[in-house]
Structure formats: structure tokens, C-alpha cells
Amino acid sequence: VDHLLGIKYITKDDINLIFETATQFKEVINRPIKKVPSLRDITIANLFFENSTRTRLSFELAEKRLSADVVNFSAASSSVKKGETLIDTVNNILSMKVDMVVMRHPNPGAGIFLSKHINASIVNAGDGAHEHPTQALLDCFSIKEKLGEVNGKNVLIVGDILHSRVALSNILALNLLGAKVKVCGPKTLIPKYIESLGVSVETDLRKALQWADVANMLRVQNERMDISYFPSTREYAQQFGINKSLIESLDKELVVMHPGPINRGVEMTSDVADSENAIILNQVENGVAIRMAVIYLLASKIKQ
Ligand code: CP
């Protein structure tokens, strides 16, 4: 069975095939009738053991636009709360003849673990601080759409790199596609191994932005910290947040991205989030086409 467990497990050719397929599906989702009958005989379970707005809605819309049957599961209202294991929960769901599982889970590697114990295709919708592959695919697709290509572009990732699955998946995908990657954030939130991934580090945001074609602004993931890594939200915003006057003072073109959920006034002010520089809602729109492509390509293997 084929899966999408992380960018770590796919190739540049896989990404290009996903992008070509997503480009075709983007035309579909912009039509008055937004559906294609491609997956009429496929059933998909969306298992969300951790909160989500964008990813969950985006996967559900992608599945419905491919005409798949969809069931949704949220840990908060399930028997997981009564002590059932992940494998038992998923095997029970699969007994109801489900072909594919889209899973978000707080534990890094949850999808990899599950893939060794069940006979269904798994798509990782975020596993702890490990990977969020469809986010990285939609981010790179959005950069390509905006700038024509990813190869050779300077992409800056700002924020809590240490706790971010979005950062790791983006770095791996950007590396495969030939972008140069730099990270910027508080020293305590940049992991020691980052340079081994071919990524440079700059703790001065202004200098980093001078270098960048694209700035992908990430959230500080307080929910993944046992202790406070940085003195205060205000201090973080002052040193690592962007506002319109900072962007204007750079006197250059800058594409601003954010995977959401955004904290206005922390990662960026509203005058940036709502400006022409920002492609945040394009990222969300592209997310549906990218997820349609991923599901369609995996489902075509199930059907064989
Ligand atoms: N970007 C992202 O994963 O958002 P959600 O947590 O709302 O799904």
C-alpha cells in the first residue's frame, strides 16, 4: 500500500507529478460544478486526534470534490477518551471498509507506526513536531504559482523552527525543488541539527528579510513547550514579527506566507496579513487542489 507519510519519503519527481495533477484540479475547483467522479468507489476516513481548521476542511472538501465517500472522526468525541489504542481504533474503522486514512496525531511518527499495522493508504495530516507534508506541498506550489518557479529562490522561514512540523516538511520540499533556505527566530527555537539540512541561520530578522524572496512566518507553538523558551509574546513580536513599515523599508519585493492559524500582531500585523504581499489565502485555496492530487494519485494505486 502506498502512503504519504512525509516529504522525507518522496522524490522531486513525485512532487512534480503532484503539482501537475493539482494544476488540473485547480481548474475543477474553480468551475461552477466543482466535482469530478474520479473516486466514486473509494471511502476515506479523516481521523483528527489533534485540533485543526484548515487541514481538516481542506481534506474533506478535496475528498468530496473527487466524489469519495467521507467519514470524519474527532478524538475529542470518540472512544479514544475511554482508553482505546490507536491500532484498535483504526482497525475498527477499517472493518467498516475504509480504503484510505487521513490522520493528524500529536505524536511524531504516528502515521509511520500505523502504516506497519494496517492495510490502508495513510496520508499524514500532521504528526506532532515531525512532518506536515501536504502543507509543504501547498506552500511550494503557491511559491511556484507566485514566482514562476521554486528553483533558485531564497526562502526564509521565520519563527519556532524547533517545534514546527511545517518548517521541517518545507525545508525538505524546498531542498528537493532547488530553493535556498534560511531560518530566523530566537536561538532557543532553532534546533542544533538545522545546518545539517543545508539550511543557514540568521537571528537578525531585517538582515534575513533583505536576503529573502519569500518569508514564511510560523507561529510559536506554545502547546508543544513544557517551559517558556522566550520571555514574552510582546518581545517575540518586536524581534521576529513583521509589519508594513518594516517591509516598505526593505525597498524590494517580498512574498509573505503563513500556514495558519495566524496570531495577528505577533507573527505579523494586520496591515501585512491583508496586504498585496501576503498570499495566505492563496495557500489555503491551493491546499484543496494539492490534497485532491495526493488523494487521487494514492487512490489510483489502490484501484490497481
Ligand atoms: N496549517 C494548518 O495545518 O492549519 P490547521 O491546524 O488549522 O489545520
Automatic annotation (TrEMBL):
One GO MF term: amino acid binding
Pfam families: OTCace, OTCace_N
Function of the protein: Catalyzes the condensation of carbamoyl phosphate and aspartate to form carbamoyl aspartate and inorganic phosphate, the committed step in the de novo pyrimidine nucleotide biosynthesis pathway.
Gene encoding the protein: pyrB
Subunit: Heterododecamer (2C3:3R2) of six catalytic PyrB chains organized as two trimers (C3), and six regulatory PyrI chains organized as three dimers (R2).
Annotated EC: 2.1.3.2
Residue positions binding carbamoyl phosphate: R54, T55, R104, H132, Q135, G260, P261
Domain Aspartate/ornithine carbamoyltransferase carbamoyl-P binding: 3-145
Name of the protein: Aspartate carbamoyltransferase
Catalyzed reactions: carbamoyl phosphate + L-aspartate = N-carbamoyl-L-aspartate + phosphate + H(+)
Keywords: Pyrimidine biosynthesis, Transferase
Family membership noted in the UniProt record: Belongs to the aspartate/ornithine carbamoyltransferase superfamily. ATCase family.
Root EC class: transferase
Listed NCBIfam families: asp_carb_tr, PRK00856.1
Residue intervals of the Aspartate/ornithine carbamoyltransferase Asp/Orn-binding domain: 152-297
Pathway: Pyrimidine metabolism; UMP biosynthesis via de novo pathway; (S)-dihydroorotate from bicarbonate: step 2/3
Binding site for L-aspartate: K82, R165, R219
BP term (GO), one: 'de novo' UMP biosynthetic process
